[in-house]
Amino acid sequence: MNYREAFRAFKRLYPDGTFTTNDRIDRGARRLAWGYFTDELCKGGHITPEQFATWSHPYPSDNR
Prior knowledge:
Layout (H helix, E strand, L loop, with lengths): L2 H11 L6 E2 L2 E2 L1 H17 L5 H6 L10
Antiparallel strand pairs: 1-2
């Protein structure tokens, strides 16, 4: 699985609005969910440990 495929799967699992309350995005929750998601992909053999260690969060504006 490549990064683009993983991001698409993440978006299917957590559609837009999943991490939104009162029109505010909970960026921490979204980052945490991405971390758990990629951890499960790695444990399931869908991505390599190197991919898990190097893939950044798919929402770069959240990395402030």
